[in-house]
């Protein structure tokens, strides 16, 4: 078994078309997926793997708690506006197709594509979610990047979170709240160029209250994206908890 897909609901015809327009994938049956229970909390984990890809997926919060956390974040989180909500590509300024915020330990900074985003101090809700992730995984985090997608038009393009200031021993822990969205991994050798290889993408759905761990070396070999899904009418908040090594701090994610 080398590929997984995790689906939580039946798709409409339009959604099926959107999936089919991306490359096909091999599906596995739920019962083929390994369930890991090696972390401190007895929540069931699904492991999915491919060449150079190692991720763990779980439902961290039940619907009631996920709803509550989503609503609290809608009250609490202050997103960047103005120049801080834009990126620079070859000297031109572009608006990011989503809203972003960064929180974390004092003095931490996140930089990409010409913007430098200072971490705001943790809020109580963010501390609560961070601590739940730590309890479930055994890993500690000093920074979170928050992306808010107002509907299915908001998205994030293919990129890797492979910056040298991220501690490779610590997975990137991605918590999703709100609308279910598709999430796609593509191997770097399956993208473009003369050495392009036939490696199937890995597609999954990130559910309300879910936790996805991207373990080393996933972000070395695989790009990921949250594509446009026009049928999605409701918002989603994603929190990627990270561990930044302070004295290595320089840049953040690179958008390509
Ligand atoms: O919204 C997501 O699920 C992904 C966000 C992401 O890739 C990132 O913050 O680097
Ligand atoms: Fe990312």
TrEMBL record:
Q: Where in the cell is it found?
A: Nucleus, Nucleolus; Nucleus, Nucleoplasm
**Which residues make up the binding site for substrate?**
110-112, 162
Q: Name one GO biological process term.
A: DNA alkylation repair
- Keyword Membrane listed? The answer is no
Domain Fe2OG dioxygenase per the UniProt entry, residue ranges: 140-245
UniProt keyword annotation of Transferase present: yes
Which amino acids does the record list as binding 2-oxoglutarate? 147, 149, 159, 224, 236, 240, 242
GO CC entries: nucleolus; nucleoplasm
Q: Which UniProt keywords apply?
A: Dioxygenase, DNA damage, DNA repair, Iron, Magnesium, Metal-binding, Methyltransferase, Nucleus, Oxidoreductase, Transferase
EC code(s) of this entry: 1.14.11.33
User: Which cofactor(s) does the record list?
Assistant: Fe(2+)
**Molecular functions (GO terms):** broad specificity oxidative DNA demethylase activity; cytosine C-5 DNA demethylase activity; ferrous iron binding; methyltransferase activity
Leading EC class: oxidoreductase
Give the catalytic activity.
an N(1)-methyl-2'-deoxyadenosine in double-stranded DNA + 2-oxoglutarate + O2 = a 2'-deoxyadenosine in double-stranded DNA + formaldehyde + succinate + CO2 + H(+); an N(3)-methyl-2'-deoxycytidine in double-stranded DNA + 2-oxoglutarate + O2 = a 2'-deoxycytidine in double-stranded DNA + formaldehyde + succinate + CO2 + H(+); a 1,N(6)-etheno-2'-deoxyadenosine in single-stranded DNA + 2-oxoglutarate + O2 + H2O = a 2'-deoxyadenosine in single-stranded DNA + glyoxal + succinate + CO2; a 3,N(4)-etheno-2'-deoxycytidine in double-stranded DNA + 2-oxoglutarate + O2 + H2O = a 2'-deoxycytidine in double-stranded DNA + glyoxal + succinate + CO2
The UniProt entry's sequence similarity note says:
Belongs to the alkB family.
Q: What quaternary structure, including any partners, is listed in this protein's UniProt entry?
A: Interacts with PCNA homotrimer; this interaction is enhanced during the S-phase of the cell cycle. Interacts with nucleolar proteins NCL, UBTF and NPM1. Interacts with XRCC5-XRCC6 heterodimer.
**Protein name stated in the entry:** DNA oxidative demethylase ALKBH2
